[in-house]
Amino acid sequence: MNDLLLMLGYLPLILVGFFMGLFKALRAEVLREDTNDATVTSKMQVIKIFFVEGINGAIFCFLIYGLLSLADLPYIFKICVGALIAYLGVDKAMELVEKVLNLRKKG
User: Nearest 5°: phi and psi at 16?
Assistant: First the structure.
């Protein structure tokens, strides 16, 4: 019973990561410049890409939350950083986090 409550506590984190992965895949599909590109032809391939990106986003979000749990940071900040990494990727998200933390230190 205790394990179930612990897993339910991680459910919002996993859902946020999953949806950020889906949005990332959707953005990549919408922003694809070459409309004649036939690499993704069937609906099943598109669904597979969305599902894989969603799972990857959930895993990234969960891992980043675990790493940030080592620091004394608020819960919502850890979830937001995990969602940023799931959506933007590691490099862009870390640049954004560094900028926010620098602004926080200056203010």
Answer: -60, -45
Tens of pLDDT, residue by residue over 42-66, are: 667 777 877 888 888 888 888 888 8
Locate 85 and state its tokens: 């990494």
Nearby residues of 88 by Cβ (< 8 Å), 6 or more positions away: 24, 96
Q: Are 57 and 24 in contact (CB under 8 A)?
A: yes
Q: In the prediction, which pLDDT does 32 show?
A: 62
CA separation for the pair 99, 107 (Å, rounded): 12
Name 98's Cβ contacts closer than 8 Å, sequence gap at least 6. none
User: Which residues lie closer than 8 Å to 83 by C-beta, 6 or more apart?
Assistant: 16, 17, 20, 61
The pTM (predicted TM-score) of the whole model is: 0.67
